[in-house]
Amino acid sequence: MDNCLGLPCFLLSAVLFSCMCGLSLGTELSFVTCGSVLKLLNIKHNVRLHSHDVRYGSGSGQQSVTGVTSVEDSNSYWSVRGTADAVCHRGTPVKCGQTIRLMHVNTGRNLHSHYFASPLSSNQEVSAFGEEGEGDHLDEWTVQCGGSVWKREEAVRFRHKATEALLSVTGEQYGRPIHGQREVHAMTGASQHSLWKAMEGIFMKPSESTMGSQDYSHVHTEF
Fold first, then answer.
1. Please, are residues 52 and 108 in contact by the beta-carbon 8 Å criterion?
2. Cβ(3)–Cβ(73) under 8 Å?
3. End-to-end CA distance of the chain
4. Where does residue 134 rank: exposed (0-12), middle (13-18), buried (19+ CB within 10 A)?
5. For residues 109 and 181, what is the distance between their CA atoms, to the nearest angstrom?
6. What is d(CA 106, CA 104) in angstroms, rounded to the nearest whole number?
7. Is the peptide bond before 119 cis (omega within 30 degrees of 0)?
8. Quick one: which H or E segment has residue 171?
9. For residues 74 and 7, what is the distance between their CA atoms, to the nearest angstrom?
10. pLDDT per residue over 174-193, tens digit each?
């Protein structure tokens, strides 16, 4: 992907758009909001959720989803979106127990799962599916966390709504053409392998009307 002034172009565009429209980028926010673009780190294996225009050679044949150790790779950005049945307004804090979609920014496909077997571990395959952010009900994931909203410093889990399996990494590594990348799959049991944390990205700041009378703590973090 092209870089603009040292940033991925889509991130620079989002910054410029926010400035022109009077929006705030919530780098100081302590929670994740709808419309945010972020990277997700699997805490146990220290890899970021990743995708690319490389399809599985088995199973569904859909676009593959992997884990990468690289911090800078722009193919690890995902956009937090609502579902077809529940709109997630830009800047609204994502609640624990809320169902969302995660769209891979560079390809416009959604994080997806189904009962195909994953290629290395034979767990449940996780892929990227759809076009321009629109797929089907198998793109829906429920955020599991401990408080009222998804906090950026908190380890969370993502449970696939249709199959109830958890987004996981257990360390299996691919060979060519994606040598060294880790398999991402879904598993029914909760474990250290299914814990994720929000990392780098753009976090849309809630408006006063969105916040209402809720009290959400803020901490300063760097973009």
1. no
2. no
3. 19
4. middle
5. 19
6. 6
7. no
8. strand 166-173
9. 9
10. 998 899 999 999 999 999 99
